UniProtKB/TrEMBL annotation:
One of its GO terms (molecular function) is glycosyltransferase activity. One of its GO terms (cellular component) is endoplasmic reticulum membrane. Keywords: Coiled coil, Disulfide bond, Endoplasmic reticulum, Membrane, Transferase, Transmembrane, Transmembrane helix. This is Exostosin-like 3. Residues 81-150 form a coiled coil. Residues 194-502 form the Exostosin GT47 domain. The keyword RNA-binding does not apply. InterPro entries: Exostosin, Exostosin_GT47, GT64_dom, Nucleotide-diphossugar_trans. One of its GO terms (biological process) is heparan sulfate proteoglycan biosynthetic process.
């Protein structure tokens, strides 16, 4: 069939071609021969092969012998089959080679895949870097724009004014009694930036110096030597200070003598402006020596004042100097709790003279009195308090006559009883300490009252001052209501009820505040003198001297442990907190509130720790802007988030918004020994945006172990000893 088909094909082809006959004949013979050979090859050999192959199929394990390793040698006896075997062999060899090549390629593909992954990662990183760079660029652009917008020089300090040599052109007030800062004080000597230089006269250079109480003099001189404001140069001084009391009774000079000596002070300059006459009382004996002395425009600081003499905002009510040369023993001060003590309140005192008799005697004070003498409430006070004591509703202790000789006192004043230590013992047992102001209401403050007040504060008895006309020390800056109850005398019948109504929480708050005031302003001679200076300084709005830098003891430590990123931090997706700092760390701006502290912040400054004596670079109590400032900005320097539209995550990342134009922060960690926990907490700070540094305050006497490896978190870690 195959041959016929072939011939027909040939014939058709030849016929179409039109070749000569002889050629056609010879080619036919050749074709026949070729066809025959082909027939033999194509039919006969396959038949033989078929025969043998079927025999192999019949033989057992035939497949194995053909396709397995070369064991079927007997099959290759036939030559053609041997050829086939050879072909098979070479094919399988080739297959093996191909297989090896495939594996090779596979591994190459895996390698390339890894490479792709790495590339992807580095692209990611590069993107991140680009983002940061973009941030930096936009920050810089912002800063540049702001600088251009501001286009004004940074506020610089005014030139220091020096006082004229003769300031005689200063107009005098009609009377020294009318002296206030605005008409009796020369501000031109005290520029805001002068730093408040104070010149202190040496009392020993003047005759009255010999009659000064030696302890007071010694304490005063000691504190003057260490005070930062005191200057030797009288020409640049803002304030001149002279100590005149207290004097020892037997050797007192006559008032006229003292007056003369004051007026001859080298810088008195006709009227004594910018002078401060200090009279510190140590004992409670009080007269009012200065009352009869013409002091010109000098300010007076003492513990006893009559209302006609006291010039509010000008004169200073000082506390008595009890601990003249010795420090108070802070260990002996009773603890703040328990809140309630044995006696609800206590009072001991003795009145030498009644108001009526005293008014008749001290004629000189009656000039301004017209009509009736002021009511004397003392009788009513005595009967009411005795009734409370007798009712036994509460434990109270009131004594209106002293067991032993009472201390000397001014007329109508309640004299102190007993020794200081006895009085303190009683006050330690009292929740409240009653202080009855002198019956003569023109006596706005007396040394005896002040003494009672400070003894009460010292041991934590809450002062109850009867008589609201009293001028408590520094009451233009100290909020006494936070530490003492000031009650008008006519309310005496309500006092018991009032005291009982106060909750323990409030009591404790008052006691704590009293303790703060006592410790800060009244406890030592240094404090008393610093307070006198501070009040003048505050009144004329000069900032305090900056606090001395104290270098902390740094503990050296080894760092180098690579810190991983906190999974929580890395995984907060949209809530990205912002870029890690790329600029070198910068310090916060310092001393931004120099003049704020003596302007808007006076009361907070004086009534809460750390007190008004120092200027701090910044405190934790500095007010902060509300969060709206982040979004709406507060003028130049602020970069509202999202241009004022706000946002989170990405918008935050793109803008340094906030309370200050540029922000970085410091993490302060207090720690005690647990190193493992500390290291973990430190590692967690790795890569924190806006982080400037970490300060670890090491609270243990035992130093951190030497071989401890601290994590490297990209910002400095400082370890400080307490
Ligand atoms: C100082 O003050 C005390 C008590 O306030 C008083 O007794 C004394 O006379 C005063 N001394 C002078 C010199 O004014
Ligand atoms: C002031 O002087 C007058 C007369 O010299 C005297 O009577 C009066 O007691 C003195 N006042 C004081 C407070 O020393
Ligand atoms: C504030 O006081 C500090 C410390 O004396 C000083 O360095 C700084 O220049 C002052 N700043 C201003 C604005 O007066």
């Amino acid at each position: 069939e195959l041959m016929t088909g072939y011939t027909m094909l040939r014939n058709g082809g030849v016929g179409n071609g039109g070749q000569p006959w002889v050629l056609r004949w010879s080619s036919r013979i050749r074709l026949t021969w070729l066809s025959f050979t082909l027939f033999i090859i194509l039919v006969f050999f396959p038949l033989i092969a078929h025969y043998y192959l079927t025999t192999i199929d019949d033989a057992e394990d035939a497949g194995k012998r053909i396709f397995g390793p070369r064991t079927g040698n007997e099959l290759c006896e036939v030559k053609h089959v041997q050829d086939l075997c050879r072909i098979r062999e070479s094919v399988s060899e080739e297959l093996l080679q191909l297989e090896a090549k495939r594996q090779e390629l596979n591994s190459e593909i895996a390698k390339l895949n890894l490479k792709i992954e790495a590339c992807k990662k580095s692209i990611e990183n590069a993107k991140q870097d680009l983002l940061q760079l973009k941030n930096v660029i936009s920050q810089t652009e912002h800063s540049y724009k702001e600088l251009m917008a501001q286009n004004q020089p940074k506020l610089s300090l005014p030139i220091r004014l020096l006082p004229d040599k003769d300031d005689a052109t200063f107009p005098l007030p009609k009377s020294n009694r009318n002296c206030r800062l605005h008409n009796c004080f020369d501000y031109s000597r005290c520029p805001l930036t002068s730093g408040f230089p104070v010149y202190v006269y040496n009392s020993d250079d003047y005759p009255f110096g010999s009659s000064l109480d030696p302890l007071i003099k010694q304490a005063f001189e000691a504190t003057v030597r260490t005070n930062v404001y005191v200057t030797e140069n009288a020409n640049i001084a803002c304030v001149y200070i002279i100590l005149v009391g207290e004097m020892q009774e037997p050797v007192m000079p006559k008032p006229t003598e003292l007056e003369q000596q004051l007026h001859s002070l080298p810088y008195w300059r006709t009227d004594g402006h910018n002078h401060l006459i200090i009279n510190l009382s140590r004992k409670s004996e009080t007269q009012n020596f200065i009352y009869n002395i013409s002091t010109g425009r000098a300010m007076i600081a003492q513990s006893t004042f009559y209302d006609v003499q006291y010039r509010p905002g000008f004169d200073i009510v000082v506390s008595p100097l009890v601990h003249a040369m010795s420090e108070p023993n802070f260990l002996e001060i009773p603890p703040q709790v328990p809140v309630k003590r044995k006696y609800l309140f206590s009072f001991q005192g003795e009145k030498i003279e009644s108001l009526r008799s005293s008014l008749q005697e001290v004629r000189s004070f009656e000039e301004e009195i017209e009509g009736n003498a002021p009511a004397d409430y003392d009788d009513r006070i005595i009967t009411t308090l005795k009734a409370v004591q007798d009712s036994k509703l509460d434990f109270v202790l009131v004594e209106f006559t002293c067991k032993n000789q009472p201390k000397a006192s001014l007329p109508t004043e309640w004299a102190l009883c007993g020794e200081r230590d006895d009085r303190l013992e009683l006050l330690k047992l009292s929740t409240f300490a009653l202080i009855i102001t002198p019956g003569d209401t023109r006596l706005v403050i007396s040394a005896g009252c002040a003494m009672r007040l400070f003894e009460a504060l010292e041991v934590g008895a809450i002062p109850v001052v009867l008589g609201e006309q009293v001028q408590l020390p520094y009451n233009d800056v100290i909020r006494w209501n936070e530490a003492a109850l000031i009650i008008p005398k006519p309310r005496i019948t309500e006092v018991h009820f009032l005291l009982r109504s106060i909750s323990d929480n409030d009591l404790l708050a008052m006691r704590r505040q009293g303790r703060f005031l006592w410790e800060t302003y009244f406890s030592t001679s240094d404090n008393v003198f610093s307070t006198v200076l501070a009040i003048i300084r505050t009144r004329i709005q000069i900032p305090a001297a900056p606090i001395r830098e104290e270098t902390a003891v740094e503990i050296p430590h080894r760092s180098g442990k690579a810190a991983g990123t906190d999974p929580n931090m890395a995984d907060n997706g949209d809530l990205d907190l912002g870029p890690v700092e790329t600029e070198p760390p910068y310090a916060s701006p310092k001393y931004l509130r120099n003049f704020t502290l003596t302007a808007m912040d006076i009361y907070r400054n004086w009534n809460s720790a750390p007190g008004p004596f120092h200027l701090f670079p910044y405190t934790p109590f500095d007010p902060v802007l509300p969060s709206e400032a982040k979004f709406l900005g507060s003028g130049t320097g602020f970069r509202p988030i999202g241009g004022g539209a706000g946002g989170s995550g990405k918008e935050f990342q793109a803008a340094l918004g906030g309370n200050v134009p540029r922000e970085q922060f410091t993490v302060v960690m207090l720690t005690y020994e647990r190193e493992e926990v500390l290291m973990n907490s430190l590692e967690r700070l790795n890569g924190l945006p806006y982080l400037n540094k970490v300060v670890v305050v090491w609270n243990s006497p035992k130093l951190p172990s030497e071989d401890l490896l601290w994590p490297d978190i990209g910002v400095p870690i400082m370890v400080r000893k307490t």
